[in-house]
Amino acid sequence: MIKTSKLTIYLILVIFFFSLVLPLNLVKADFDLQILDISLEKLSGSSVKIKWRTNVSSTGTIRYGLNEYNLNAFITDNKPATWHEVVLSNLAGETNYYYQVTVSTDLAETNSFIRKFKTDETKDNEAPSITNRDISFIAGTLAVVAWDTNEAATTFLEYGRNESFTRSISSSKRVYSHQVIIKGLNPGADYSVRYYSKDKQGNRSSVFEQKFTTRSNNNIDQAGLIISDFRPNSLDDPNVGDTSLTISFKTNRWAKGRLTLKANNTKTKTQNLDHNTYHAAVLDNLKPATKYNLTVYLTDVYGKKLEQSYVIETKSTYFETPGNGINSVGAVDFGASLGYYGQYYNFSENDKIIKIKDPKNGPKATGWYESKYFSFAQVDPGLNFGCNFFPINTNLPGDPYYFAVHWSAAIEVPATGSYNYSISSDDDSWVLIDGQTVVDQGGTRKAKEKNGLFSLGVGTHTIDIYYAERKPKGACMSFVLDPRITVRPRHSGPINGSGGSFELIDGGADFGNGSALENGAVGTGGVIVAGISNTVYTHSSGLFRALESPDVYTIMNGQRHYISSPGSFNTYAYRWEEIKMTSQSRLEKYPRARLIKSPDKATIYYLYQRPENQWLKIALNSPTVFISYPENYWGNVITVTEQDVNSYPNVRFIKTADNKDIYYLKNNIRHLISREVFDREGYNPHEAAIVNQVHMDSYLLSEPVK
């Protein structure tokens, strides 16, 4: 019994020992969690399968993305196992992706190194679509056929007499815009053409056929190449700016070529011109008050050449005012206008520039303010935006977050002394006065108000405020300057010198026969901030169409403007493949543009919406009338095609809100119209636009309508 008792005690001790040791070993095994044998299998150009093992049962997650510093997508295998495989789908073809494997148990978690793979080319089974088909130019012995494709594709055209197709012209070069010059035709003859395009995968578009008749004589073929309607055509032409020139002209035949611009001690600027009969180009980053020699070199479709030279002088819109006694400051005189000139930039959450952590040397080190990210510009009366500041949404990944703004102004200091300011931003912000950084709040962080003092000398100084929002949590921006200081908008190019997207055009405040807002995208008072583009129209920051509607809108100065027709769309020189699809509710986040003008006329129109949801236009016939409406803002005036302006019927009847009298408008004269005449003629009472008394009194009163 004693021996048995000792054995029993021994067994009990052994069992107790293993009961302590085994759990410890198991815990140790869990904390030695390992990822083994990671492999990747490409299933197609748009999907891959990732496989791996673990030494103990665990769950797994794949995090992946286009940037190794931003693995913003993930897929999880929640079933505990030692063998795992996950399929990543809907990937872009021929694209580099980065991924990381994460596995976990209840007690441990471990990650793999970040790995990389490139997807294969995605099989494209869709044929190119052809748009903008046109016989662009017809002469006696020559014709030009043009069309666009929604993807890069080859060009193939057949043609012949009397619906036969005996000859062909082709190009294996894949392009979006196709222009085929058919030579050696007979005058006064009927021809048929058919054409199509093939993409990289060999998918062929539909075949289109068209007919045309050549001119009965070949006078146009034999005439010389002629330039007409050249602009700028005077010293006051709005196409002349202080740092840019907008060149436009017409030719009597299709021609292509180049422009060269040269001044003393400057590099020659060159701008290429594509085949067309209307040509336009913007030459920027010029010196104010400088004479430039412009030379136009053209070659038409017959090979005839033309060289023509002009001398054009840029305007001077700069003045010098003593600053703090050390140096003088150049600034643009905006007349009576107040506020900050803001240039807005938008970038994707995938762009590497937003990964810079706490950039040094202020905005010069960031790259956020480069022209390639430019979206729009406007004059902001103040910068107290609060914590719901989301001014840009162009459907980039991450929108409405991840954007930047550069505000610039000339500040007028009444007397030497200290002036207070307050600033609060989420995220980065910097303030520079006379080019020197005085506030540095670089880095991503929560908004925190900072109050301080600037020591400033009497006179005019420059101020630049930079802001960037680069994390998807909120956007706070507020900068308030001492009210004793007068702030006027001032243009300043991107700080990195990469070239601006906007110019300043000098203009008077007097409308004369119409508005002084020529070629202006944004303007206040006597100076207009104009959009730089290759046309005379306000810069477009995006083209959108709602899924629920065929209507296409362009975004100008943060407002949506309806493009009235395909002809107008082509006049803007937009590309159909650049139209982005969105929802109606998202599109309506952009306010409807209400102030429009055409490039060649000074009149500004207000778009009036009738109760039946129809739109009319009414001229704002003087600056006094314009500013008599508090909601009118010079910066909201956009320059659009004449087709778009003409698509809106004119307001025929006007009245004031507090008077029942209705007036008929004709040639800027108003005629009282009785209710009897109104009913007799079957006029719609809802067509009467309500104007204020200042606007009403601006029209001469004549005899009543009978």
Descriptive account of the structure:
The protein has 706 residues and is mostly beta strands. Among the domains are: 35-118, Immunoglobulins (Immunoglobulin-like, Sandwich), CATH 2.60.40.10; 130-221, Immunoglobulins (Immunoglobulin-like), CATH 2.60.40.10; 228-313, Immunoglobulin-like (Sandwich), CATH 2.60.40.10; 319-500, Jelly Rolls. Helix content is 9%, strand content 48%. It contains eight helices and 45 strands. Strands 19, 20, 22, 24, 25, 27 and 29 form a seven-stranded antiparallel β-sheet that branches. A hairpin with a 5-residue loop joins strand 17 (318-322) and strand 18 (328-332).
The biggest beta sheet, please? 7 strands, antiparallel
For the record, give the distance between the C-alpha atoms at the N and C termini, rounded to a whole number.
136 Å
Spatial extent as radius of gyration: 34 Å
Helix content: under 10%
* Strand residue percentage: over 45%
